[in-house]
Design brief:
Helix content is about 55%, strand content about 10%. The chain is mainly alpha-helical and about 260 residues long. The longest helix has about 35 residues. The two termini are about 35 Å apart.
């Protein structure tokens, strides 16, 4: 089965990801399930002590509140980590995996909530039986929750992001900007740029000279705006120069 996945973004840029197969997803789920089991065990132990030490009335009330907190932690674990950590639970991070939208973009709270609510069905009849069967019969290794939320699980290594546009050279662009010419380096934060965004920037910088001037400016603005919003940058920046500096800083940090 082909392990490469090519996604065309709405900006008509193709990004190639490597699909996460059953093996890596199984081990990631095993790590996450172990952590959740630990949460349940600790929660049970603490609740039992509350009920024993504080008497029937107060102990039962605190035990009920503790039970609700454990329930919230259990069901909110995936949603919190996937939204706060750009599609990665602790297990997925350990295995180098990430959840993305099927259009190549990061997932939001609603996407994570849907895919994790359907996890109950995927788990049937025991330990992801329905989910494993669904993954085996579709080409992108999606479980039922992924279909419901429109998501995919991919590997996160940046070497898996390759330009695939028809006019792309297939090579990373060379950005020769001397440090003294940087205008935005003071507030650019490369660590906030996701692997998917790096791939889109790389593809844009590779293909930009083949684009009409209007399309080139429009595309640079579309790519730059969400990154600017995360960094709190000014709306008056030159979008193309901003993308050049972001890419140059990321390449510099990776080569250190």
């Amino acid at each position: 089965m082909n392990e490469q996945l090519s996604i065309e973004t709405p900006e008509q840029i193709d990004i190639r990801f490597q699909k996460a197969g059953i093996g890596s997803r199984f081990y990631a789920a095993l790590i996450d399930t172990g952590l959740l089991a630990l949460i349940l065990f600790v929660g049970y132990y603490v609740n039992r002590n509350f009920i024993t030490e504080l008497g029937d009335t107060l102990g039962n009330w605190l035990g009920a509140i503790g039970g609700l907190l454990v329930f919230a932690l259990f069901w909110g674990y995936y949603m919190v980590f996937e939204v706060a950590s750009n599609g990665q639970s602790l297990g997925k991070r350990a295995l180098g995996l990430r959840v993305i939208k099927d259009g190549g973009y990061p997932i939001g709270f609603a996407d994570s909530a849907i895919r994790n609510l359907v996890r109950v069905v995927d788990f049937l009849p025991f330990f992801y039986g329905a989910g494993l069967l669904t993954m085996l019969v579709n080409g992108n290794w999606q479980r039922l929750g992924d279909f419901a939320a429109g998501t995919l699980v991919v590997k996160t290594a940046r070497t898996d992001l390759k330009p695939t546009g028809a006019n792309g050279s297939g090579h990373a662009p060379v950005i020769n900007i001397p440090q003294e010419a940087f205008e935005y380096a003071g507030w650019i934060r490369p660590e906030l740029v996701t692997e998917m965004e790096v791939g889109v920037i790389r593809e844009y910088l590779t293909r930009r000279r083949t684009l009409p001037k209007f399309r080139r400016s429009e595309l640079a603005r579309t790519i730059a705006n969400p990154i600017l919003a995360k960094m709190g940058g000014s709306d008056s920046v030159s979008d193309e120069k901003f993308l050049e500096e972001v890419y140059a800083l990321i390449v510099t940090s990776e080569n250190k």
